Amino acid sequence: MFVLSFCIISCEKEQTYSNNKKFFSKPIQTLKDVTLYRSSSGKVYCELFTKRIDFYGGDSAKTVFPKGMKAKFLNNDNSTKAILTANYVINYQKSSLVYLKDSIVVINYNTKDTIYCKDLFWEQTKKIVYTNNPIRRKSPSGIDFGDGLSASENFDSVVIKNPHGNQLLEEE
Description:
The protein is mainly beta.
């Protein structure tokens, strides 16, 4: 009988805090091979692809992309505006904050820029993306570095903090 009760206790999925609030240490739902579309007024402006999404409930509800994701932002004519990839993503639902980490790459097809960084924060309510960690930008005029960046959520406007590096300038 002792072995049976031990097995029941050790297989429990929920854990309890001292104030009797429960949280789930395992996802409440998992989706695999997912394509999501974001649209406004019937127009798709973002396609998101991922191998896996884990949903967690409770007081700290979040959505986790443990195998990373690829987001394709579209122009009005459905051509690709930009592509963002990350190896790990967490969407904190109560704060509308998304944290992307591990090998972030943003390719902007309109400006021909590619930005590399180790993490990004996306504040959905403010529609901004930022990082305070070092970044590298590759553009047609050269490669430069910065101590972070701030951008609009669709990367139409990007400001690099403390930019430094070599750039080619055209004479007029």
